[in-house]
Design brief:
Order of helices and strands: HHHHEEEEEEEEEH
CATH architecture: Beta Complex
Radius of gyration: 17 Å
Number of domains: 1
Strand content: 15-25%
CATH superfamily: Peptide methionine sulfoxide reductase
Number of helices: 5
Number of strands: 9
Largest sheet: 6 strands, antiparallel
CATH class: Mainly Beta
Length: 191
């Protein structure tokens, strides 16, 4: 009976995004990955090019950081509450950290309590690809980047209106870029 009580919560945490307390330490410097300039190490990274990207896994492994490669190409999952993007409230756009494809705008981000950045709608229908995922004895829908087919996370039907969807996305595969207008206003106020 005690084993059952221990295993049941573990099984439920695998079934759904975990709900636990957040580590509220968030630094915009670490969350705003534009300082890392992924495009400098990655020849296919572009926020404007919509051409489909088709590289071998060996090529991806050479150009991606190990943590990004693990999630994006090997369908891994980052630890809940580990992404600085979880608590960002700034206006801007979330891009695929692998290829630079626009995925979500900040207006569609919401606090789901699951430990990963959550959105209720992608930028466009073509920005995301959907695929059935029946791993670990669960029936889920995997979401991948529409440009490079990298694993992003999963979509669930327990989100807020207007879509009722919750895109639960690994922060390590997202780049956040603040809206240019907001950044200009912020800079003007500082001067």
């Amino acid at each position: 009976m005690i084993r059952l009580l221990i295993l049941l919560p573990l099984a439920l945490s695998l079934q759904f995004c975990t709900y636990s307390q957040s580590n509220k330490k968030t630094s915009m410097d670490s969350a705003n990955k534009t300082t890392d300039t992924p495009e400098s190490n990655n020849p296919v990274y572009s926020n404007t090019d919509s051409t489909k990207v088709n590289l071998s896994e060996a090529e991806w492994k050479k150009i991606l950081p190990a943590d990004v490669y693990n999630v994006a190409r090997q369908k891994g999952t980052e630890r809940a509450w580990s992404s600085p993007l979880e608590n960002i409230k700034d206006k801007g756009t979330y891009y695929c950290a692998v290829c630079g494809n626009a995925l979500f705008v900040s207006d569609t981000k919401f606090e789901s309590g699951c430990g990963w950045p959550s959105f209720y709608q992608p930028v466009s229908k073509g920005s995301i690809i959907y695929q059935p995922d029946n791993t670990y004895g669960m029936s889920r829908t995997e979401v991948m980047c529409g440009r490079c087919k990298s694993h992003l996370g999963h979509v669930f039907d327990d989100g807020p209106p207007p879509t009722g969807l919750r895109y639960c996305i690994n922060g390590v595969v997202l780049d956040f870029k603040k809206a240019q207008e907001a950044e200009k206003k912020y800079s003007a106020k500082k001067d």
